[in-house]
Amino acid sequence: MNTGRTRREFIQGLIISVGGAVTLTACGDGETTSEDATITATPTGNDGRFYLASEMALLSRLSDLIIPRTETPGALDANVPGYLDGLMADWASEVTRQAQHQTMQDLAARLNSAVDNFLEVDNQLALSALTELDSNAFNGDDSLSGYRTLKGYITQAFFATEEGALQELKWVAVPGRWDPSVDIVAAD
After folding, report:
1. Residue of 90, 111, 106 lying closest to 32 (CA atoms)
2. Do 23 and 83 contact (CB within 8 A), yes or no?
3. pLDDT above 80: residue 3
4. Which of 55, 83, 161, 185 lies in disulfide reach of 78, CB 3.0 to 4.6 Å?
5. 14 vs 58, which has greater pLDDT?
């Protein structure tokens, strides 16, 4: 049965079902075909197809600090930077791409002014700088709207992965016990 839905519509529905509505508003120009709906994540350790090498390094550090590995996989284990790179390269509109490059430049400048060489300092110092930036971003600093958007992309991408959905959220296709033959008794 052909429902008339394209792969793009299917992917949009899938992303929305895991809470990715914000991601969709920034992606696509509405003039792409269903063949364009594939997102190919950049393999871990490779140069970005969209992000510059310095931007991929910053994105990886931010992803790791925002969703670190604990008893469950973190954002780097789920290749969130690679997924976002693929999303930007394969699906994002030109306006979103330009905004992402600007956001990465702004974040690098801001974080490097907070600590000398954000990418190289120990995690505690980097986390402290990011915590302050995060606090400012979510307490009215409108100059950090790009960071708020990027943090949303990171978290939504993580929870859309197998690691995020199955291990962190513990998503189960059919929750609870399934009894195919249950006696139905009329209520008195």
Report:
1. 90
2. no
3. no
4. 161
5. 58
